[in-house]
Amino acid sequence: MKPIAQIKAPINFEMELFEKKFLLSMSSKVALLNRITHYVVNRKGKQMRPMFVFLVSKMVSDGEVNDRTYRGASVIELIHTATLVHDDVVDDSNRRRGFFSINALWKNKIAVLVGDYLLSKGLLLSIDNNDFDLLKIISVAVREMSEGELLQIEKARKLDITEEVYYEIIRQKTATLIAACCSLGAASVKPDSEHVERMRKFGELIGMAFQIKDDLFDYGEEKIGKPTGIDIKEQKMTLPLIYALNNSSEKDKRWLINSVKNHNKDRKRVKEVIQFVKDAGGLSYAENKMKSFQQEAFDLIQYYPDSPYKASLELMMTYVIDRKK
Fold it and tell me: Whole-angstrom Cα distance, residue 57 to residue 206?
């Protein structure tokens, strides 16, 4: 059995019902919108975020889910999809998960409006059902994701990023949404309990490990759907590169910064940077950090008794850092 199918096994019923509810939550009176949202739903990814919502809610409540859990999972998926649609416009990207992106098929203006529509549907789903605690969790995540993106853009201009600032960027950009999934799962069944904050922290730690794994792909040989060296070409300061910069001579540091700033489109130079980072121990340093975030998350979840849901979350933690793409 593939890892994702294994992880999903204890919540197969919930995930099938969720897909029906999710499609309904997207519906509109505008035919064009329905055509586009249908296209989005049929090209869904692994759906890890709703899986986190259901697994956490069942783990903290001895297998219980309710309507709030389904709404929480739908809100997260609506907001996540909205951010992906907007990201493709910002990055001028024509592909998403191997298919044409919305902006490639329907142009930027429509893609931005569709992203806005999905965002508003997510917020209204919470408001119409008085899920104000869930709405607060997701609104904080959206604010932090925007701040993280802007902080990364600001730092990429100067390349003056420290390890602490890097952690803050990935916490906001990536980890905050997984943290929101896990705290939503807990809040849907155990509102105002200590589980909500514990699960938020758990999701944040997994998100940190997940993003460092993504950064490591940039230096790997595996075919992962994105060319290696792309972060360097985009002047993104990732953990392996930051470590190499902090642990090299002034001369090497100048060469590295000059390479990333002024020669990031030169294939040969990018290859040299990748080799330099590897030789400087940047990859093993980042791998160790990734594993330490994973271990912290693992320790947090030991508070709960053994169950199929806890076992799936542990599998998910392993999958996050063992995945090949």
Answer: 17
